[in-house]
Amino acid sequence: MIKAVNMKKEIVVTVANKMGVLADMCKIVADNGINLEAFVGYGMGKEAKIHLLTADNLRVSDALKKAGYRSQEEKSVVMIDLENKIGALKLVTDKVSQEGVDIKYAYGTTCASGCPATMVISTSDNERVLTALKKG
Question: Residue 1 is inside which H or E element, if any?
Fold first, then answer.
């Protein structure tokens, strides 16, 4: 069920929790011709966190800084492509649990059919998870 597993870097941007910020950030990424592979955003009071996994983090980070989005950090995550089938996510979470690794956060995408579901996870030991999932 697991098609591919890779270590990736995401950009985590802390922004004001206000309408239009995500739209502005997505415009900046698109205007720079960079593909957004995955994202998640959530508000926490007056602030929001936007996690961006892109095809070119350095260019995205520079463009966002030029636009005033200066509160950024880069984090390692594990990106997993799965068959879009019942139980695929269970397989991943079972393996992570069996390794004794804590999932800090996770987000994912799916499609109707014919393409993989993508899961992005940050854990207490990304290297261990990567190795375990590559073993199958």
Answer: none
What class has domain 9-75?
alpha beta
Q: What is the pTM of this model?
A: 0.90
Fold held by 77-135: Alpha-Beta Plaits (3.30.70)
Tens digits of per-residue pLDDT, 13-30?
A: 999 999 999 999 999 999
pLDDT digits (tens, 9 = 90+) for 72-88: 999 999 999 999 888 99
What does the CA dihedral 101, 102, 108, 112 come to, rounded to 10 degrees? 60
- What is the identity of the amino acid at 87? G
Q: What are phi and psi of 115, to 5 degrees?
A: -130, 160
Query: CATH 3.30.2130.10 residue ranges in the chain?
Result: 9-75
Give 121's contacts (C-beta < 8 A, 6+ positions apart): 77, 78, 80, 92, 96, 103, 104, 105, 106, 129
